[in-house]
Design goal:
Layout (H helix, E strand, L loop, with lengths): L4 E4 L4 H14 L4 E5 L9 E4 L5 H10 L4 E4 L5 H6 L1 H21 L4 E3 L2 E2 L23 H20 L3 E2 L1 E3 L1 E3 L12 H10 L4 E3 L7 E5 H13 L11 E2 L3 E3 L1 H9 L7 E3 L3 H7 L8 H7 L7 H17 L6
Parallel strand pairs: 1-2, 1-4, 2-3, 4-5, 5-7, 6-8, 8-12, 9-11, 10-14
Antiparallel strand pairs: 11-13
Length: 319
């Protein structure tokens, strides 16, 4: 059967890169990218979609005979705290629409992204277990915990094959920071390449789990490609790429740009970071569907700098 894939939030940090990878894998004509606003330069089939509109979601699924959905649309952690009720409404209503449309239209697989934001304050910060209780302290985290439980419910109640991973902070050169607490790392790279001082909104020693974009996309594709029988966790899998603090990332960047300077001015996002793990145990993902990251902090830095130099200055030399 030829797969026809719908991606919500296709202009987001993850969504844009994932959509391109899915196009490469399944063919441009078989991937329907959607978002709130029209993307003028988008390569491929694009539809404007407010995923809180059930009828519009249903229309697109039927019109394009969709078989798989990657539901990437959401309001993220830092932006979510600015308007908690709107964040809850958007994150949950869009998910319910995707779940309901999927079960009524025989969608074969659904991907729902969760986050390390599901953890709260009373948990082991290092190597946080997969099954440890979740008590998030942001509305974004609350919505993700609820989403995980609804995913589990729809799988066991209706047989919907919905799969999920808890993303750490995602770092990529493809887009600008998108409102997440871990996005300081993306901004730091941009500032360094442009020879600008970076003001960090987290403490110098605030260690958080991160993942490079290439690894995040590989994980997403891999879990969706895994046999049904191998997906034993029906809430969401922990995955781990690498963990570091702002000062450790700055040191890695300074190995290429020795004059790079950083100042620390923590704001409300530090409280969010304090409620998250420093590292997570992803042994179940490694066992069940053979998850394995490829990038460490220095290989990530080299790749980020190479691509950002090309973006800003059209420089192509290797580092």
């Amino acid at each position: 059967m030829k797969e026809k894939i719908l991606v919500t939030g296709a202009s987001g940090q993850l969504g844009a890169v994932l959509t391109k990878r899915l196009q490469d894998k399944f063919g441009v004509e078989n991937v329907i990218a959607t978002d709130l606003n029209n993307i003028k330069t988008y390569n491929g089939c694009f539809e404007v979609l407010d995923a809180t509109d059930y009828d519009r979601v249903q229309f697109l699924v039927k019109t394009y005979a969709i078989t798989q959905i990657y539901h990437m649309a959401a309001i993220l952690s830092a932006n979510g705290e600015k308007n908690p009720f709107q964040t809850w409404e958007v994150n949950m209503k869009t998910l319910f629409n995707i779940l309901e449309v999927s079960r009524h239209n025989n969608i074969t697989k659904v991907f729902f992204p969760s986050s390390i934001a599901v953890y709260g304050s009373d948990f082991p910060k290092v190597n946080t277990p997969q099954t440890f209780s979740t008590s998030p302290q942001t509305v974004y985290g609350v919505s993700k915990v609820a989403g995980e439980n609804w995913a589990n419910y729809y799988c066991h109640k209706y047989g919907l094959d919905i799969r999920s991973i808890r993303y750490p902070g995602v770092i990529g050169h493809q887009s600008l920071p998108g409102g997440g607490t871990t996005d300081y790392a993306v901004e730091m790279y941009h500032k360094a390449v442009k020879n600008e001082v970076f003001e960090c909104f987290l403490n110098h020693d605030a260690v958080l789990p991160m993942i490079y974009m290439e690894d995040a996309i590989n994980a997403t594709i891999d879990i969706m490609e895994a046999p049904f029988r191998d997906i034993r966790v029906r809430t969401s899998y922990n995955i781990s790429g690498l963990s570091f603090s702002p000062s450790q990332l700055a040191e890695s960047i300074q190995s290429i740009f020795p004059e790079f300077k950083i100042r620390y001015n923590p704001d409300f996002r530090q409280r969010i970071a304090d409620s998250w793990p420093e590292s997570v145990d992803d042994s179940e993902a490694r066992e069940d569907w053979k998850w394995q990251p490829k990038y460490d902090i220095n290989t990530m830095t080299k790749d980020m700098v190479m691509h950002l130099r090309l973006r800003y200055f059209n420089e192509t030399q290797n580092i």
